[in-house]
Amino acid sequence: MDVIIQKIHQLTPSIRAFELVSANGTPLPTFEAGAHIDVHLKNGLTRQYSLSNSCSERHRYVIGVLHDANSRGGSRCIHTEYHEGDLLQIGEPRNLFKIHPETKQAILFAGGIGITPILSMAYRLKSARIPFELHYFVRSHDMIAFYGNLTEHFGSNIHFHIQDQPGTGCDMSQALHQNTPDKHLYVCGPTGFMEFVTNSAIQAGWQTEQLHQEHFVAQLADTSNNEAFTIEVKGTDRQIKVLAHQTATQALIEHGFDVPISCEQGICGTCITRVIEGTPEHRDVFMTDEEHALNNQFTPCCSRAKSKKLVIEL
Ligand code: FES
């Protein structure tokens, strides 16, 4: 759908918030806390950004975008080529990071740009009167995004942990000491940060069902031992060779097949494809271990094959 960038706010030296409103004046589709949208950029890339505002709002979506020094072209494009008043194409909200329906208490951890979905969750928990605390980790005070919103709406619930400010560190054992089964933990941020938080929680006795995390960037798989394999597309005679240096989507698109892709990192699930024969080598973080074990679908943007050939259905 088309939206207009109504306002751009410079939140930190490297993070901007974009307020998006409907281009035709109708209310925007509803969303749940933790949801993200696909943003289709003018340079042809599609990127996912979490919605940060309250899910009770229908007149706008707010996304926060980090101008990433290692940008693969997405964040650089939106920071440099889009201005207030510009039109933007987005997809409808989707949610891979939902608040568990049994949540009666919550603890939220955000690292850096990971505050974006966590902020929306905080609004939701507050409106549902679910007790929560929010721990926000940043390198320095000027890196705190949405500072005004956080202090205005969640004063006593929020704890800022600022790396260059002595005395603001987080005592994880204290923060995690209470883990009744109805308490859920939500974490979003860099991969190492999320691992640190979830490992700390497991050591403190939390169950994996209580832990929920959002992946912005997938851990890079080791591709040095990639081997070529063949894909047969059901209903065609075509045998597509996927070379060691290629992804399956690259090979399929090169041969004229239409495969929807978005994150190209195994995060979003857009490219999930049915596998009829053969054994995939799963490299995504989208599907569960149980879904991987079924071996009846795979994410061709990053996953490969353990067998010499996969027969897929497009
Ligand atoms: Fe996102 Fe494949 S394009 S998982």
TrEMBL record:
Domain 2Fe-2S ferredoxin-type residues, every copy: 227-314
This protein's UniProt keywords: 2Fe-2S, Flavoprotein, Iron, Iron-sulfur, Metal-binding, Methyltransferase, Oxidoreductase, Transferase
Swiss-Prot/TrEMBL GO biological process terms: methylation
One of the record's GO molecular function terms: metal ion binding
Pfam families tied to this protein: Fer2
Residue ranges of domain FAD-binding FR-type in the record: 1-100
Superkingdom assignment: Bacteria
Transmembrane segments annotated in the record for this chain: none
SUPFAM superfamilies assigned: 2Fe-2S ferredoxin-like, Ferredoxin reductase-like, C-terminal NADP-linked domain, Riboflavin synthase domain-like
InterPro entries listed in its UniProt record: 2Fe-2S_ferredoxin-like_sf, 2Fe-2S_ferredoxin-type, 2Fe2S_fd_BS, Beta-grasp_dom_sf, FAD-bd_FR_type, FNR_nucleotide-bd, MRET, Riboflavin_synthase-like_b-brl
Coiled coil is among the record's keywords: no
PANTHER family in alphabetical order: CARNITINE MONOOXYGENASE REDUCTASE SUBUNIT, NADH OXIDOREDUCTASE HCR
Protein name: Vanillate O-demethylase oxidoreductase
Organism in which the protein naturally occurs: Acinetobacter haemolyticus CIP 64.3 = MTCC 9819
